[in-house]
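Anyone? Bumping this.
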Amino acid sequence: MVHVEIRHVDQAAIAVLRIDNPPVNSVGSQVRVALGEQLDKALADAQVNAVVLTGSGRFFSGGADIREFNTPKTQVRPLLRELIARIEGAGKPVVAAINGTALGGGLELTLGCHGRVASETAKLGLPEVKLGVLPGAGGTQRLPRIIGIAAALDMIVGGEPIAAHKALANGLVDEVAADPIDAACRLGLALSRGERESRTVDPAPLRNAASESVFEAARRDAQRRYRGCIAPLECIGCIEQTVHTSLEAGLAYEADRFKFLVEGDQSKAQRHVFFAERQATKLPSAAEPSQIARVGVVGAGTMGGGIAMSLANGGYWVVLLEQTEAALQRGWNTIQGNYAASSKRGRFTEQEVKDRLSRIQCSLEYGDLADVDLVIEAAFEDMQVKKEIFTRLDAVCKPTAILASNTSRLDINEIAAVTSRPAQVLGMHFFSPANVMRLLEVVKGAKTSDSVIATVFRLAVRLNKIPVLVGVCDGFVGNRMVSHYTREAYFLLEEGCTPAQVDGALRRFGMAMGPLQMQDMAGLDISWAARKRQAPTRPAHLRYSKVADRICEMGRFGQKTGSGFYRYEAGSREPIPDPEIDALIAQCSAEAGITRREISDEEIIARTIYALVNEGARIVQDGIAQRASDIDVVYVAGYGFPMFRGGPMFYADTVGLPEVLATIRRFHEQHGEYWEPAPLLVELAESGRRFSDS
Ligand code: NAD
């Protein structure tokens, strides 16, 4: 766990303590104990002039062991903050040799040291805010004392790691060196001889370091960036202590706020999402992925263009195929425009943009797809169109090529059946904008082979996407559930709500946007087409809201036509409530014989979110998702579900499944068969289990 080596430099002895706890050298309870013992030994050894702390492999330390949070292991002494205090007060210099990534508790460990040296490739960060907590081992008190309030706010509230050269520039590290252990030994020796000054922090409050307005601005910014999250505000509150109190009092304050956060629902939800994302990439089979270098994209519209960019960003060669010269030109112009905008924002250099564009070859000839390893079709959402395209692809593509469709809802098995290679056909459901959104539903058809799935998962990870394995059904996981969510939103309109009231309640719950605003953004014609397709098989006795259809009949397809559930000023995405729609909704209520009533936010949230939960339970039961936590990943990464609530299934666990079930049963009585409780929900609730146990 901790290896010790004595190095001799200029006749002095330096004890190098190396943390070795793969994969990320986390400082869990066992490492703390081992480190405490070795540190005490080295400090007590009269032969040792200085101590160097470092890590094995590519990590210095990834920080505390998150799996130990909320377990008795966090109480095993020495606590990390005790260990850091011991280092800070040591009678001989302790220097951190930051050999690689130092995150969270790992970086905090270095902040107690008398000097810090980083390797050229080191990354230093305090990402705790992303897990709904704060740096609880002195980070919020020591970092501002080392690099100043503004830079510390950036690192702690932003949560993004910084590179070694930046850490040198802002004073976080004293040196950047090709051999950080050697440099740290020399620094330790110089410190022991009094030739260099210790970099431990001054425990006094920081004077005139920042005005109140800096913290106010940080709070405003955090409320905008992390709507509904409490951890960023607590981080700011802790940093603010550094201007009011001593290190000791600030540390006590920080420890108290850490405890508050780590025991709260938000941080549990955010840790759930963190693990769920990692779990989602695990496949049931160990099949070998094959190599992908060249990818064809069919259709250069909204999705095809974004998919092509995403592939080019990931270093793949792309052939972008369209039907007509005009459509191809339009698609290419959009891609160029998007890259120009990101280069303007400083995301890519001009050279990077050039390289990416040079990897995309535009084409009108299917023959150009003869040697691609994978094709992703993103043409119109029409089964006949897809069948024609897959027939042609099957004829021109090499026999080993994988053929994927970006369909939002259509049956992958039906598409696969027109090819001679159904084992190599699957769905790759990207989300819009495809070059930005990280979620990818990977749809496994009845005949799709495991190695094809493994190949696409590896490609997705290389594209920095979060792949989630889903099965074939109308809408897969995300859109199948969203149909139930929007259905309830439409019913709520008929029963007494306005669009702004429904959307407002869900935004206050934490959704990035409400369901009606989301429909306006996606285009009302898309779901209208799906409803028309489903109409022949929809049982006549089931309640059906005509509100959305009537809005479409008025030619209002959402943002793209300047009006939908709301109206939009030219060039703006800001939804403006429209009395014409209020009148239309009231008319629909009257026609359906519904007496409009007052509806609370609480009911709006239960009706819409529990509709997601109930359908999510059926999806797990049907095996469409591998696990309930995959659904949470889909909703947080793809549908703007608040991360701090952990996704719909985790949220239901937090509320308590017996309570969720009781409410669903009440809705079942009041609103009929749409609300029939999912058998898995009943089974879990009645046996005292949760979705996270399923
Ligand atoms: P779009 O209308 O913007 O683009 C479709 C493009 O495909 C058009 O440029 C059209 O010229 C081209 N095309 C049509 N038939 C073709 C053919 N035979 N050969 C080559 N090109 C052809 O549509 P979109 O929004 O990009 O959607 C594409 C697909 O992605 C659909 O299946 C849709 O359901 C799915 N999808 C859309 C979204 C979204 O938010 N828009 C999200 C996920 C999935």
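Late reply, but here is one note on the structure posted above: Residues 298-304, 321-323, 327, 378-381, 385, 389, 406-408, 429-432, 522 surround nicotinamide-adenine-dinucleotide (CB under 6 Å).
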